[in-house]
Amino acid sequence: MIQVLCVCLGNICRSPTAEAVLRHKLMEAGLEQHVFVDSAGTGGWHIGDSPDQRAQQVASDEGYALIHELRGRQISIEDRQNFDYIYVMDSNNMRDVQALFAQNPEKEGQAQLNYFLGHSDYSDKNVPDPYYGERQDFEDMLTLIEQGADDVIAFLKQQHGL
Ligand code: 4NP
User: Fold this and answer.
1) Any ligand 1 atom below 6 A from CB of 128
2) Handedness of CA 79, 83, 87, 89 (dihedral sign)
3) For 137, phi and psi rounded to 5 degrees?
4) Are the C-beta atoms of residues 148 and 126 closer than 8 Å to each other?
5) Catalytic annotation on 96?
6) What does the pLDDT read at residue 66?
7) Can 71 be counted among the known catalytic residues?
8) Which mutation among 53, 91, 92, 129 tests ligand 1's pocket best, with the greatest number of atoms within 8 A of CB?
9) How far apart are CA 119 and CA 133, in angstroms?
10) Mean pLDDT for the chain?
11) CA of 146 to the centre of ligand 1 (A)
């Protein structure tokens, strides 16, 4: 099974949304047996927490009900070995994950680190943090993540012959 980890700062807005959308779309494509999806935060403030109410609301309004079940966790160095792909939401997440890997050079791993929008045709690869924003920011986040999820799945299908 291909292992995919979505990463943001808090693991309560963007990365759980990405996890729920990816899992939903993989199910629709009949690929849920081929790809395992998880999410984590670079920060540890929201370990064990449900996703942000606003993220839950916009996701469930669009039919991604699974988001309610997710709980926050923090990325660890073991994730580098346990996952094949680690997709970050913005350049701060990228810097923090690269720093985590650099601090533990003995813990090598196969994970390919990329932006969640890295397979998408956007010049700006960041999914902006909506935490201090309005509902519209959460809706914009979901739209970007839906596009990114389609492009991640297309990449995985092509890369792994699914
Ligand atoms: P996320 O958003 O990284 O998309 O989950 C945030 C959630 C919480 C915080 C920051 C960003 N926080 O500082 O608590």
Assistant:
1) no
2) negative
3) -65, -35
4) no
5) no
6) 87
7) no
8) 129
9) 26
10) 97
11) 19
Q: What distance in Å separates the CA atoms of residue 136 and residue 52, rounded to the nearest whole number?
A: 14
pLDDT digits (tens, 9 = 90+) for 123-132: 999 999 999 9
Q: Which residues contact 132 (CB under 8 A, 6 or more apart)?
A: none
Tokens 């993220």, residue located: 55
Cα 6 to middle of ligand 1, angstroms: 14
Token couple for 90: 């913005």
CB of 122 sitting under 6 A from ligand 1: no
Please state, in angstroms and rounded to a whole number, the distance separating the CA atoms of residues 117 and 94. Answer: 12
Closest among 80, 64, 84 to 156, alpha carbons compared: 84
- Total Cβ atoms within 10 A of residue 155: 15
Identify whether 14 is a catalytic site residue: yes
Q: What is the atom index within ligand 1 of the atom nearest the CA of 17?
A: 4
User: What tokens were used for 79?
Assistant: 């994730």
- Is it the case that residue 145 has pLDDT exceeding 90? yes
